């Protein structure tokens, strides 16, 4: 007996096979825009490629889980508009960076810091306000030793500090 999981769709394309929990999630992948679904479940891709959509009740549940990016980086950093949003985005991303191997993924960090996008320079960042030095040491720990914990800890402490001073 298969363990019941969240419903998902299997999408078979020439580019590969994707599993999405909602049909709208496939739009997030940036691969397609939808023509009206046919009875066969055919989807139209941007470059005239077609995909076959298998509904959740016919999908092998063992292979149905969100990708790393769907779970830990669901929106681009540039879409964050407030410091709190940026902190939450960063915390989620750094939680996921420790699980890249488990998901069989890789991730390029360039341009993905929501705090950098929201504040535009290090001295305006809430991390700098919290510790007067920014995140360079924690970032170096990740780059040099694959250690995400210092950055995760710093982001959580910064959020607590920021929320405490914002309430005043």
Would you kindly provide a written description of the structure presented here, covering whatever features stand out?
This protein has a four-stranded antiparallel β-sheet with strand order 2-1-4-3. The chain starts with 8 loop residues before the first strand and ends with a helix. It contains eight helices and four strands. The chain has helices at 23-28, 68-72, 83-97, 100-103, 114-119, 126-131, 136-145, 149-167, and strands at residues 9-13, 16-20, 42-44, 50-54. Strand 1 and strand 2 (16-20) form a beta hairpin. It is an alpha+beta fold and 168 residues long. The longest helix is centred in the last third of the chain and has 19 residues, at 149-167. It has two domains: 9-63, no CATH class; 68-167.
